[in-house]
Amino acid sequence: NLCPSSRTIVFLLIDLLISQVDHGTAMEEIEAAMAAFETDDGFITARDVFRLSVDARLVTLSACESGRGEVVAGVGMLGLAQAFQVAGARSVLCSLWKVEDQATRALMTRFYALWRGEGVPAVEALRRAMRHVRSQAAWKDPIYWAAWVLWNTPD
After folding, report:
1. What is the H or E stretch that residue 148 is in?
2. Backbone angles phi, psi at 76, to 5 degrees
3. How would you class 62 by CB atoms within 10 Å of its CB: exposed for 0-12, middle for 13-18, buried for 19 or more?
4. What is the reported pLDDT for 148?
5. What is this structure's pTM?
6. Which of 66, 83, 84, 127 is deepest in the core (most CB within 10 A)?
7. What is the pLDDT along the chain (155 residues), one digit of tens a residue?
8. How far does the chain reach from its first CA to its final CA, in angstroms?
9. What is d(CA 12, CA 65) in angstroms, rounded to the nearest whole number?
10. Can you tell me whether residue 26 is helix, strand or coil?
């Protein structure tokens, strides 16, 4: 399946909350940040993110087209990825097109095993995770692994 919408926000918020906790943010601060969202409709907007203070090395937007945005005159590209960078995230991992569930799960599992588990720099961990996914017969086509980009890498 491509882009199950019910899971998009869950992945995004789990990664954000884990990053915040890892950097010592108290649960009260996380709850206050969550209160910054304009509505509780299950969607997060760039406007919501601009209200946050994100002290994280990496925010992963593990969802379809999470790296896309709109061109705004005088600003350039504006979307969730850019909003998280403005809010303080030093890197954003996101996709540029619709991604398939199982291939994404395999890529993210390998990425986090390398990055968090083995301490491999994020750029290299993503490269290796992509290589792992494309080594699988069912996922050789770039549509399964090439959508992922890492912006503003600190490693």
Report:
1. strand 148-151
2. 105, -150
3. buried
4. 93
5. 0.73
6. 84
7. 444 433 333 344 444 544 544 444 445 555 555 565 555 666 777 777 877 778 788 888 877 878 887 777 777 777 888 888 888 888 899 999 888 989 999 999 999 999 989 999 999 999 999 999 999 999 999 999 999 999 885 55
8. 33
9. 13
10. coil
Six-digit token pair at 37?
A: 């969202």
Both tokens of 91, joined, read 């890197």
Per-residue tokens: 28? 């009260």
DSSP result, 53-108: ----S-EEE-STTTT-EEEETTTEEEEHHHHHHHTT-S-EEEESS--BHHHHHHHH
Please, what's the b/e burial string for 95-134 (b: 16 or more CB within 10 A of its CB; e: otherwise)? beeebbeebbebbbebbbebbeeeebebeebbebbbebbb
| DSSP secondary structure of 109-144 | HHHHIIIIIS---HHHHHHHHHHHHHTSGGG-SGGG
